[in-house]
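Need fresh eyes. Consider my entry:
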Amino acid sequence: MGVETSEHGRGQADLAEQYPDLPDYYHIPLSETIDRAKQAQTTGSVVIVFYTDPHHKLGGNQLRAAAAVKHAAKALSSDCMVIGGDIMENGPKIEVLLAQSELMDAIRMQGCPAFPMRGNHDDNSIEDFRLKIKGANNVIFPVEAYMDIYRSLDGTVSFDKGNESGLYYYYDIPVKKTRIVMLNSVDVLYKVKADGMLQQNGQWEYAFSDRQVDWFEHKVFDFSDIPDGDKWKVVIFSHLPIIQRGVKGYVDGEVENGEKIWKVIKTNRNQVVACLFGHVHIDQVLYQDGIPLISTLNAVSYRNYAESPDRTVGTASETAFDLISIDCSKGELRMTRFGAGEDRIVIFEV
């Protein structure tokens, strides 16, 4: 028994040395999660870390989650990280901007790009509503978000040229013949009216703009200048579900032009792997027209539904993110969960 304790002690010490920036209650769960994710990988797998709805506050526990995300991404030689929106919790504009930058700075790393998406909380318009201020003093406009956390992706991703502050873009992994698409489901018109208030409020009004729909149809699925373009696959991320039929959780209004986006997806279904999203704060997998729609649990430590797992700050369950491995030859998408929730296997058409 003494030898076993000693061996266990050395294991704990090794993990503490391996994860010096993480609390000890992350060490074993993270190591075990990475081991399971490695077993899920096959030669040529597309590997993505999906971390969504952190609702980060300055100095909050999501900084621990961000450090864990980076350790996992490095250990798995991940192709990219996707941060699925609702990056920060709402509040005074300066604090929210600082929190947004703090979390993105904490999660970025060399060799594995981090791709943020626009969530409905990310324009911070709810703060003026909460304070009953008839204005837009606390709103984070798309051009501000672009300058703060998206502009660093210039040259790495393909934005809609001339409309970079639309905040939608894609990233190509040529060696794996895969295109990763980040849509903006809160692509509303940010216009301030004469009374100082927004014409549309991104907290409650959701849309894919006509321009984004056109870009999605004619740019995302245009592989004409790529050798073997017909063999490429497309993985689509959005904060809100593109369509909401059958979706559980925070289903609080259709996304304008969602059906148009879905029509493009159906037209190109032979190339689409899956559509992944956050926002609803619950895990689920459903199929529309044979295409998987997958939501991932909120990273923030909220348990919003009885069927969701318990969340306890000070344990690994205080957060949640998925380590995704996609095997296009088998039509298999494996999601290995760190934190609250369970691993999942999703099948798609090849």
